[in-house]
Specification:
Layout: H1 2-21, H2 25-33, H3 35-59, H4 65-84, H5 86-93, H6 99-112, H7 115-131, H8 137-155, H9 161-193, H10 207-233, H11 238-256, H12 258-273, H13 278-305, H14 307-315, H15 322-337, H16 339-354, H17 361-383, H18 385-405, H19 407-410, H20 417-440, H21 443-446, H22 452-481, H23 493-497
Helix pairs in contact: 1-8, 1-11, 2-6, 2-11, 3-7, 3-10, 3-12, 4-7, 5-6, 6-9, 7-9, 8-9, 10-11, 10-17, 11-13, 11-15, 12-13, 12-16, 13-15, 13-16, 13-20, 14-15, 14-22, 15-18, 16-18, 17-18, 20-22
Length: about 500
């Protein structure tokens, strides 16, 4: 429930920001100033759970106090540097920004740099909450942070945009500070209620896997940096359109796929640590991956088919008019169409992390960056933000292919084909239904040229037609197309662990 509330508040915040800022200069400046905190958020979500959650599940957080203190100190130093040298920080990350956008971004960076520490600490506390099964507290903090921004946007509606945007930036920082307090309460609550450690303290040092993850994240961060650098050097509004499209797709991903994967990660960590848990782990992994793909691939079909309509229905209010929709919809279509690739890679990475093998991150990121970054510069120059999105998907496909080839090494006993076939069929049914629904809708609605209210109504019709058609096709065709020996092995891991 709290996850749905958090995503709803985040969606409301983004819609209000789109209505206030559109794809103008101040939105470009806000995206540029948010680049450094976004890096920290990405770093925390990718590294901290992988490193800390399995150890917290088995040993408790007591032995990790030194590491947590060191990370906290580093985050505070980075935040202070961003407050003192905001222009240098923005220019270092996005050197292709126009001078006017750079000045505006530097003014906003003084308010937003503190989020470097806030988001990093939130990632650590979220890992502790998940390890102790306090799943509601991290999304509650996210919901509070988004609600603060939404309230400030509404209260300041009569203030000129040049003064209003810094106040919005200050509200983002204040909201994340309150969200950190909520997560801290959940962390201490879970620590008091947590049972005794279920395993002896690990003798494997933390420094080595941490160094590998840090290096991997440096390479991985080159991908969004290259994308934002290129978008910042394109036509006015391209950086804003890239941010809007990416956020819309990520909202769908985190609402539908993220919570399912987070719960599965804790269960996989418990299965991997159990005595003779190899078979239990493999069955849990197969079943969970099937569920993830059966959710992600239909969403990919809908986003790819109805990108202009969905962009207009969700963001097309206030200053976000036809030009903004036309600039943002290609990003939603391409990135949304590849959400299944992102879901599969995200889940498989979590499964590998649950086995205590975070070292896979470095070679995986090498393959992703080697494909993504060159293509981003090439295709971005030729096709704009749509080319950036296509390069993003090609990098994901390369990384996922590398991991699938080595699945026997990193995920022994897991038969990926048992999960891919049902998920692919579900996605195919949804794509066929979406294509049929597209033909039934008015052309103006499909192109996203109607008003936002009408677009919302037609978007609901499109989703209902797609869901109903996909469900009907699955009911009649899935038993015929999937033989019994190719279906995933069902199990109840909690019962077996007990």
């Amino acid at each position: 429930m709290w996850t749905a509330v958090a995503r709803g508040c985040s969606a409301l915040k983004e819609v209000l920001l789109a209505a206030v800022l559109g794809t103008g200069v101040w939105k470009d400046a806000l995206v540029a100033a948010w680049t450094a905190p976004a890096w920290i958020a990405s770093f925390g979500s990718e590294t901290v759970p992988a490193l800390l959650t399995p150890r917290w599940v088995a040993e408790g957080p007591g032995r990790l106090r030194g590491l947590m203190g060191s990370v906290t100190g580093a985050l505070l130093v980075l935040s202070v540097a961003g407050v003192v040298w905001p222009r240098q920080l923005v220019h270092c990350l996005l050197p292709m920004l126009p001078s006017g956008t750079l000045m505006a971004a530097a003014a906003l960076e003084r308010w937003l740099a503190l989020n470097i520490a806030l988001l990093g600490l939130q990632a650590m506390l979220a890992a502790g909450c998940n390890a102790s099964r306090q799943f509601a507290w991290p999304p509650a903090g996210t919901a509070l942070a988004a609600a603060v921004v939404a309230v400030v946007v509404l209260v300041t509606r009569n203030i000129p945009l040049q003064q209003r945007t810094p106040e919005i930036a200050a509200a983002i920082t204040a909201g994340n500070a309150l969200g950190l307090g909520i997560q801290a309460a959940g962390f201490w609550r879970g620590r008091r209620r947590r049972p005794h450690p279920v395993a002896a303290p690990s003798q494997v040092p933390v420094a080595r896997p941490l160094a590998g993850l840090l290096l991997a994240m440096l390479l991985l961060n080159s991908v969004p940096l290259a994308e934002r650098m290129i978008a910042g050097g394109l036509s006015a509004g391209s950086l804003a359109a890239w941010d809007y499209g990416h956020r819309l797709v990520q909202f769908v991903f985190t609402l539908a796929v993220g919570p399912l994967t987070a719960v599965s990660f804790t269960r996989l960590a418990e299965a991997a640590g159990a005595t003779a848990g190899g078979a239990i782990f493999a069955r849990q992994c197969e079943q969970s991956l099937t569920e993830v793909l059966q959710v992600a691939l239909p969403l990919a079909a809908v986003l790819a088919t109805f990108a202009p309509l969905l962009t207009r229905a969700t963001l097309g209010w206030g200053r976000f008019q036809a030009g903004s929709v036309a600039l943002t919809a290609p990003v939603v279509s391409v990135l949304g169409g590849g959400i299944g690739l992102e879901a599969a890679m995200y889940f498989l990475l979590c499964a590998v992390y649950a086995c205590g093998r975070p070292g896979v991150k470095l070679p995986l990121v090498l393959s992703l960056a080697a494909v993504n970054v060159p293509l981003a510069f090439w295709w971005g120059e030729r096709w704009g933000v749509a080319g950036l999105a296509a390069a993003h998907l090609m990098g994901l496909a390369a990384a996922l292919g590398w991991l699938a080839v080595r699945a026997a090494r990193y995920l022994p006993g897991v038969r990926l084909r048992l999960s891919v076939l049902p998920g692919a069929l579900t996605g195919g049914f949804a794509l066929a239904s979406a294509a049929l629904a597209r033909g039934l809708l008015p052309a103006a609605a499909v192109k996203g040229t109607l008003g936002p209210g009408s677009s919302c109504a037609w978007a609901a019709v499109a989703l209902l037609l797609t869901a109903g058609g996909a469900r009907g096709l699955a009911k009649w065709l899935a038993p015929v197309l999937i033989p019994s020996h190719a279906r995933p092995r069902l199990t109840t891991p909690e019962a077996e662990l007990a």
